[in-house]
Amino acid sequence: MPTTDLVEAATAAVVDAFADTPVFACLTGSSANDTDTVDSDIDLLVVLPNDLPVTEAAQRREAFTRNYIHLHTLFGRTPDLQWPGEVCYAADLDAGIAGGAFDLDSGPRLRLCADDRPYRYWVSMAANGIPLTGHAAFAGYTTQCAATLLNHIRYNRLVAARSVPEQPPDADAPEWAEWKVDPVTVGNQPSRCCSVDRNLDYHAWRNRLQEPRCSPPLDRWIKHWRAVAIIPLGGE
């Protein structure tokens, strides 16, 4: 588990920028599962309500970007300047779960979407996170995201003419590395993974997946967030 100091500082970074608006925010990645090193960045995901105006969300996102950099300074870490924190709408995370995380033209094995599309990261970050705010909403989303990861692996095993096991997929399944998650901590609690429907028709699940109807609205300014992130605190 991350230190209390890190959880409190990460929560403050979110609340200072977004107040009580997020659906949930979580600490995720190596900082959440005790695999981080001095070279690791601190991964944060903030999910916003769909009715928050984009103009307000963008202003708050800019403040959060600065807080994200300051958080790394506090803990002597190197921030990810390409993706300085992850902020999306609930609709964007929903779209990732519903198919955006995947390359739907791939087959027979279902592959993940391209690296420069954030849907796959939002799903895996929520599946592997520790809540900072919105604990109840996070619990629902982390279960859905964990199910998405597991369904993906089980579908690929099925199309490879191997049976879908009753137990969660082996820790050496290559998809875990593709998702960049630790299979031990997916869903945060083992009971959440165990609650996934193992009687699912995986072909039907695959056929229900759809491309997102529109691009994530906040990501249109990713170059701006990157520019904000490289400006020293107090700089112009």
SSE layout and pairing:
Layout: H1 4-18, E1 24-28, H2 30-33, E2 43-48, H3 54-74, E3 86-89, H4 90-100, E4 102-103, E5 111-112, H5 119-127, E6 130-133, H6 135-159, H7 174-179, H8 190-194, H9 202-208, H10 222-230
Parallel strand pairs: 2-3
Antiparallel strand pairs: 1-2, 1-6, 4-5
Protein name: Nucleotidyltransferase domain-containing protein
Domain Polymerase nucleotidyl transferase: 23-60
Organism: Nocardia jiangxiensis
Which terms would index this structure?
236 residues; alpha+beta; 6 strands; globular
Structural overview:
It is a single chain. With 236 residues, the chain is an alpha+beta fold. The protein has one domain. 47% of the residues lie in helices and 10% in strands. It is built from 10 helices and 6 strands; from the N terminus they run H-E-H-E-H-E-H-E-E-H-E-H-H-H-H-H. The strands form 2 sheets. Strands 3-2-1-6 form a 4-stranded mixed β-sheet, sandwiched between helices. The longest helix has 25 residues, at 135-159. The protein is globular and about 55 Å long. It starts with a helix and ends in a 6-residue tail after the last helix. The mean pLDDT is 89. This is Nucleotidyltransferase domain-containing protein. Residues 23-60 form the Polymerase nucleotidyl transferase domain.
